[in-house]
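Supplementary Note 2. Why include the ligand at all?

Several targets in our set were suspected to adopt different conformations when bound, so apo predictions alone were not considered sufficient. For every target with a known small-molecule partner we therefore ran a joint prediction. The input for nicotinamide-adenine-dinucleotide is given below.
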Amino acid sequence: MKEIKNFINGEFVTNTSGKTFEDRNPVDNSLIGTIYEAGKPEADAAVAAAKAALKGPWGKLSVVERVKMLDEVAKEINRRFDDFLQAEIADTGKPKHLASHVDIPRGAANFQIFADTIKNMSTESFEMRTPDGKTALSYGVRVPRGVIAVVCPWNLPLLLMTWKAGPALACGNTVVIKPSEETPLTATLLGEVMNKVGVPKGVYNVVHGFGPDSAGAFLTSHPDVNGITFTGETRTGTAIMQAGAVGIRPVSLELGGKNAALVFADCDFQVAVDTVTRSCFENAGQVCLGTERVYVQRPIFDKFVAALKEKAETMKPGRPFDEDTKIGPLVSKEHQRKVLSYYQKAKDEGATIVTGGGIPEMPDELKDGCWVQPTIWTGLPETASVVIEEVFGPCCHISPFDTEEEVVEKVNNNAYGLATSIYTQDISRANRVAKQIEVGLCWINSWFLRDLRTPFGGSKQSGIGREGGVHSFEFYTELRNVMLKY
Ligand code: NAD
Ligand code: 6OD
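The joint prediction is reproduced in token form.
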């Protein structure tokens, strides 16, 4: 059984309170290890270490030296690929093909790409005449913000943590990570990588625990934290924003979604069915960008529902390392209860259950895992709970529509605004509709296709700010103007 410790100032440490909690494997509910919960003393020590490191060797590195070090971090993640893979799979139960093609490679790429990008960053400069006939030259300098708190969810633990730690470190900040209480392993393992490649002590720290009255709250309310970057639920984002307001600390919030797919009758049918299958069921629906509302134009509605049903029924649940496993469990018993409560609500509100709706039959040794069936509903009004609220499970409601105007209005009639995907072969329609949907991210004939130089983030209650490419550097640096008179 593992002991999962906090990583503070380059060392793995327990805590002063003696408080621990369990890390369990959602595949069969077996115990992975014991996590040492960080209390206020540990959060204080991590922030103090991160603050001190800004003035140590880390703060004195040139951009080129820093970039080289982060390149080494990426290489070391790849050298220890199997360790990261095992750790991520133990915490999440996700199928090996997913973790090995998405989570771990992106964990490494998030260091590599932001290190590459910062080498080519420039700032503006202006020259002007002064009233006394001299010249003033102004130029921008980007300086690190300081200590960044990175608060993470459990659905793509390494990917989403490094998506923020990568650019934060590339910009010369130091970080204190608060991984989700459900998925502590990969953030902890990254501490070993940091030590191995010689990242100075205190630059990368990890504190484990929960939100309120635990590591999350102690960290985000700490006055020496200079910026907070958060991915998680919209409700938690509100608490984080309130914490950031004290001391006027900037926040970057990547929050929940209730994403729609718009399938027009002129789409490439197979592309639409295959891609919507992924967007609804990949990672057991636990992707913030995932589709939970599908709107299909009436002439192809019945055919589409039948095709998606057939696909959903091929999603075989099973052990992460079995080659024929197509879908893993949900992350925890608590989340399983939440998703099943929505399955019940859909039934109570009169949904037609096209497929799924409960817990799949599993072999005895997996019966205690957090399994739910991929589920499709039809027949609900736009006011139904599962049409409005984020479920964050492998499920979707499919509604028919007739006109472009009608579907745009329905899609926009939601408090969230994270992502959408549009399926049509009419490029004019695709671009016209893309402009009208109130989201931060819009895919056409694709989904979750990522170019890390592009802006990523949500509109409305799905978040504030954009990260990715230069947008990450805007959040993780302070732009200072220098004016020289000569
Ligand atoms: P969550 O909000 O419950 O928890 C996220 C993190 O915040 C955890 O580490 C948790 O311990 C911490 N936390 C909770 N309360 C806190 C508080 N008061 N102060 C400080 N920290 C606190 O989210 P989750 O259940 O881990 O993740 C699922 C949610 O994340 C879904 O809503 C999903 O849509 C969203 N998400 C969004 C994106 C995006 O890019 N927009 C990406 C992934 C997940
Ligand atoms: O790909 C990314 O950079 C990113 N932030 C993905 C988020 C997925 C949400 O679950």
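Residues 2-255+462-485 form a domain with the Aldehyde Dehydrogenase; Chain A, domain 1 fold (CATH 3.40.605.10). The chain is about 40% helix and 25% strand. Comparable summaries for the other entries are listed in the accompanying table.
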